[in-house]
User: Fold these one by one.
Assistant:
Number 1:
Amino acid sequence: MASVTSLSDSVRQQLASALSATRPEAAGADPLLRRSDRADFQANGILALAKKAKANPRELATEVVSHLATGEVIKDVEVSGPGFLNLTIADRAITGNLAARYADDTGRLGVPLAGNPGTTVIDYAQPNVAKEMHVGHLRSAVIGDALRGMLDFTGEKTIGRHHIGDWGTQFGMLIQYLLEHPGELAPASEVDGEQAMSNLNRVYKASRALFDSDDAFKERARKRVVALQSGDKETLELWQQFVDESKVYFYSVFEKLDMEIRDEEIVGESAYNEGMPETARLLEEMGVAVRSEGALVVFFDDIRGKDDQPVPLIVQKADGGFGYAASDLTAIRDRVLGLRATTLLYVVDVRQSLHFKMVFETARRAGWLNDDVTAHNMGYGTVLGADGKPFKTREGETVRLEDLLDEAVQRAAEVVREKARDLTEDEIRERAAQVGIGAVKYADLSTSPSRDYKFDLDQMVSLNGDTSVYLQYAYARIQSILRKAGEVRPAAHPELELHEAERALGLHLDAFGDTVFEAAAEYAPHKLTAYLYQLASLYTSFYDKCPVLKADSPAQVENRLFLCDLTARTLTKGMGLLGIRTPERL
Ligand code: ARG
């Protein structure tokens, strides 16, 4: 069997049986087990239990200890303070558990899959057609991809939805212009990302100028919107050209971001067009939406604007048109009824949180969301410049995502060049991409998503501190030790006594799976980055204190190499879930 019970789960189970042996009514009580500096683990749950049973906590704790068999896993247990239990794990159990993880050849490090996984539809990386991607699009892509990696690892089924902005009145202007200036957009198959975006920009600017200066064109553009909405064939073909050209561009940026985006998961606003009238009809029939001044709207008691006037969600405008809310409501129906989602996850700027609050509440009233299907918006904060204001170029413009990524890679190249002077330019470029993009992702992921953070490249590519480069460097150093070991292979020796630093590293390694499950359940990638950073730190102090290749005995050399290798595998796995690479050499 490949899956391994973590030491903390084993201890928790043993405590649970000791608790219920002491007090049958305590069966199922949480022993509140956590890592501690006093011992390996501390259990604080007895305090609450004693309070409930009106018992003396120290006496109750002593009684629990008498029911706890020390042996293979728990080497020692003592009552401390007002009634805590301090537990020490046997060295043999630590190495044994890690050896079982090391032996797992499924690439899961012995981490079991969730017992009854659900289906999460995750809405992330949603740029807009004919528009350049900017720094604001970074977080949705990076956080969404990381959440997906973590959820997949737990066994959850995930389906991506890139709700791109590919519909709306601006297409009337663009299409009309293209109709009157054929050939301005080269066929999508003939351009690269950069050319695609520069074509789109040129067409956008020219059509906008015409729209603003020429009333007759403006009128033709308006008519074109109607033609688009009524499904006119020629109009739709031109619209498709804009979408295709934009996708060429999107793909080039996502490739730079080292992120896989699947075509079938790009399902933009336009895909929900057909379903919108039905969404409106259902909401009106159920009485969830009401007519107000000709529009179809939904009111909420607790959502009010200026002068305490209720702010409604507009499902259909008075002129019959549908907007952003109708497309999101229709998407919910599709994701719940069609894709059979149990969870809908949105990774969208926190500034859209009111929109989602209203959309979710409407869907709940309609019964599309309920106790079995829930929705969350991981509203993320803003990327700030060094001045603490939203990140802008020196000229005060929004920063193009590509420019920002290019600069990160350039900065990383300086670090790589500094570290290894014997590399070819190609090698430098490849490593710099992994380091630079990793640094941008890691900086984004290591703050809680809801918080703003400062975009500081110097800090991001620093070799010291909580950065991806530090982790990548730890990984590469381990690879170099493993290469130096030559013929000597890593091997676990559970009979060996462990050094304090080995125990600390080992216990942390064993907690990888529990950490991923917790971080995934809470949609908190920063908990995984914090774990990985601590892993690298514990490895560093192990390496400082415990000679590896010059250890006392051949068995100890093998065992330490094994700890090194398992650390490296855990680092790559964890970073990989977050979308960050670990180069073999740095
Ligand atoms: N394209 C939108 C924007 O750039 C984000 C879409 C978010 N997803 C959604 N289902 N509304 O603002």
Note: Residues 123, 126, 128, 163, 165, 328, 331, 346, 348 surround arginine (CB under 6 Å).
Number 2:
Amino acid sequence: MSAVRVRFAPSPTGELHIGGAHTALFNWLFARSHSGAFILRLEDTDKARSQQSYVSGILDSLRWLGIDWDEGPDKEGPFGPYYQSERLPVYQKYIQQLLDNGHAYYCFCSEEDLSREKETALKEKKDYHYSGRCKKLKPDEVDALLSQGLQPTVRIKIPSSGITIVNDLIRGSISFENRLLDDFIIVKADGWPTYNLAVVIDDYTMHISHVIRAEEHLSNTPKQLLLYQALGFEAPQFAHVSMILAPDRKKLSKRHGATPIKELREQGYLPEALIGYLAQLGSSGNDEILLTREQMINGFSLDNISRSPAMYDIDKLTWLNSHLMSQLSNERIMTEMAAHPQVSAWVKQSGNVYWEKVVGLIKSRAKTLLDLLSLADYFYDDCFDYEEKGIEKHFKAPDTAQILNELLLMVKTSDSFSAEILEANLRALAESQGRKAAQLIHPARLALTGKTATPGLFEIMELLGQERCNLRLERAIHFVNKLKI
Ligand code: GLU
């Protein structure tokens, strides 16, 4: 068995978000950099909130990110099942052990009993702690209550003094006072373990060596350590990764840009960009370049993880994504976009070879895959609108119609339609008229694309071909003439 075994343990009560993906990635990088195993466990005991669609969503997002698991759903291993909802018999064995050896006890207090205790504490301005009433029940009293059919919870006995120390691989040694922890509930009245107990039993029985998770779980760790002790289990090592906050230092929410991975995917972000961005988030290193998976794995160390919160910055992610877009092969982009209905329609209209050329021309201008759609539009649609600011700047000059007519003549009489020849012809035309080439290029661009900023004009002309350039110039001349009326 691998010495290093880590796990990602999401609860399927929502989609995979940036925070979860970050935790999953750090675990995965740790496993891969130690030739260890990465285990995926679904913590789905909250039956009311867990949903199968979220399970599929989480698995899909992880797969898309390239975070593969060695054991988990669809990949049975020796320590399954990997859904908590299927592990009740495992839990029951250890719950019985805790009750038998006196580390835990049944609690018959009703919700009302506990609310009353809380109210009293509130009135007396004291912090609430469970009174420990049921801890004092004698075995025959417990039996009598059980035989009445009451469904108790189970509480763990926490020492009323002393401290529990968490030796965290990122945050160092942190002490927690036991008296503040209370005899917390470890089994609910329906017989299912609560989060802290389930996680301890699972991490132990799945031979997890390192628990790497978000800082928000740090306060659970002393409770879990006490459970490890009560069960006689050796505890794993812990590493609590800083939270990811929004730039305004608040909890991440929709307001700060899409955070479900699924949505980022739908918006046209690439998995390599997201993984590269997440790997830098909260860890020291050069954040201007995207590393390959290999480089990320080789360079990963818990020592480089920051103790302060990391800030999620969608603009940074977008910048990395656009940088990556310009470097991707046309084939890869075509594969990514193949299923999009607009792309299928375009390919049907003008073929794959044409689409590939379009992609080659526009990819370096696209921030996301979805941007390609608006950038490619005029390569397919002849009836585009002209940009307002372009009309003002390039179509309203008194000699525009004349310039466009000369360009039309140039296009009509051009015997070759390659970008180089077109460029040479246009420059010669400009020179013969004593104009700067830009005076022709700007109105031509607007006439042929409707836009003021595009990839190289001559490459666009070559791709559009003589006939479409003719038509578009004629259409623009008509438009400009109407402006004058
Ligand atoms: N199911 C917990 C969560 O989604 C996992 C906590 C842990 O890693 O221990 O936050």
Note: The chain has three domains: 1-72+198-327, 329-378, 388-483.
Number 3:
Amino acid sequence: MKVIDAEFAQNFFRMCQDGFDRGWHERNGGNLSYRIKPEELEDIREDLGHYEGSLQTGEWKEIGTSVPFLAGEYFMVTGSGKFFRNVELAPKKNVCIIELDETGRKYRIVWGLCAGGRPTSELPTHLMNLEVVKKRDPGIRVVYHCHPTNLIALTYVLPLDEEIFTREIYEMATECPIVFPEGIGIVPWMLCGGRDIGVATSEKMKTQDICIWAHHGAFACGHDFDETFGLMHTAEKGAEVLVKVMSMTDTKRQTITPEMFRQLNEPFGVHINERFLYDKKPGAKIGER
Ligand code: 2HA
Ligand code: ZN
């Protein structure tokens, strides 16, 4: 089977378009990675290794970090400097499949980026995230980075405190604590594109499915494309409501209380982490405990 006909690939390309349509991928903003299943790899194997039109793979290159738990696996990832806007139109130019070597320190391109290029500048963060989430749940295969406007805006006005940030977003949509009961991780502003920010993000991803990069964007992970996109969409929706509320007032007339959140646990089969359900001081403004 051709890579572009595989169901996972079509879902990957569609998610790029969905993210662009939401306004989360200006220019070359954002990146997406997917850890390919063994059976999916078998289906497309005949189409791999055709690099630059010839029957050879790219050379082994340093990832810039080490992910031994992912050694030998294959990933579909967006290309560095490529625009999400173009992925569905020309997937083979904007996306690639990489293979990791047996040490988990090197990769080579085995499909795509046919007009040249290299995998996303955030490859170390993607692979480190994919490694920690695989350890916690081998079914988690998707890692997504985008620039969602309202979540970013809030990193300028809310304290960069995970408990406060999460709680304020929880209060904006009943869905939020059900979809991310472990809350939103926060990485303060750091230089992007390298290993250090990858280490900081993957530390959050050990327990959380969504993590904000202050003044930059967000990362989310999930079992499949729908779940991962839906997670980002839900968090960004909560953030959008909060931006609207904050543009009207700094104090809410009424809201969802910790006791109300706790009622969600049983019927929805979740356990909302109690660290986000602290009691607020009477009269607390938005962003205050
Ligand atoms: O340009 O979003 O974080 C891609 C990015 C870098
Ligand atoms: Zn970014």
Note: Residues 225-248 form the longest helix (24 residues).
